[in-house]
Fold this sequence. Notes:
The structure holds two protein chains of two kinds. Chain A has strands spanning 4-7, 10-13, 19-25, 32-38, 44-51, 57-58, 67-73, 76-81, 90-97, 105-107, 111-115. In chain A, the strands form two sheets. In chain A, strands 2, 4, 5, 6, 9, 10 and 11 form a seven-stranded mixed beta sheet that branches. A four-stranded antiparallel beta sheet of chain A has the order 1-3-8-7, with no helix packed on it. By secondary structure, chain A is mostly beta strands. In chain A, a hairpin with a 5-residue loop joins strand 4 (32-38) and strand 5 (44-51). In chain B, the strands form three sheets. In chain B, strands 2, 5, 6, 10, 11 and 12 form a six-stranded mixed beta sheet that branches. A four-stranded antiparallel beta sheet of chain B has the order 3-9-8-7, with no helix packed on it. A two-stranded antiparallel sheet of chain B has the order 1-4. Chain B is globular, with a radius of gyration of 14 Å. By secondary structure, chain B is mainly beta. Chain A binds chain B through residues 31-32, 34, 38, 42-46, 49, 91, 93, 95-105, 107, 109-110, and chain B through 33, 35, 37, 42-45, 47, 50, 52, 91, 95, 97-101, 103-109.
Amino acid sequence: GAVVSQHPSRVICKSGTSVKIECRSLDFQATTMFWYRQFPKQSLMLMATSNEGSKATYEQGVEKDKFLINHASLTLSTLTVTSAHPEDSSFYICSASTGDFGNTIYFGEGSWLTVV
Amino acid sequence: AQTVTQSQPEMSVQEAETVTLSCTYDTSENNYYLFWYKQPPSRQMILVIRQEAYKQQNATENRFSVNFQKAAKSFSLKISDSQLGDTAMYFCAFCLDSFGNEKLTFGTGTRLTIIP
Lengths: 116, 116
């Protein structure tokens, strides 16, 4: 079946540095991918919608200059956390749809970001 | 805007018993999709079951079934013959789009523990 791969699964970075998380659809093309953030013991909150070939659409309250999203191809979207701070530490997870009728959505394995 | 409410933060049940998780939602739309996702400790989001709003028949997947009450905007998940591997967070989710190009709106989740 369709698979969405996320990399890295865990990353530790220093405050002030930037870190990039990749989300790949391995055997299907995804014109739209979504980036969610999940705090401990909480639900998934949508950060932005990533559209191939165009600018991402950010949810209210999400800093677009801090969380850079690039959807350069139909199989890859990247989330870059710029000038990371400890409060950016969280679980980030992406999802992608095959685009088929019936709403088949697949999630990546998620990425744990720890900013020290 | 759509909202999803899960009123049971935590539940526990003995192995082999049946448990029902509640979910209500609010929307003014007539066509939409509803989902139950399972998130085990690994944090991987796993689709449990999906229901199209235009279908009156309740979806079933092996031990998992839903009670979809469109007029009441209710979408509960029943797990029969519960197993230890069912221990996880369960999220109810809502989506407007038929092709997966719209975001998922998640409830706050129910932490289910299956007791040996």
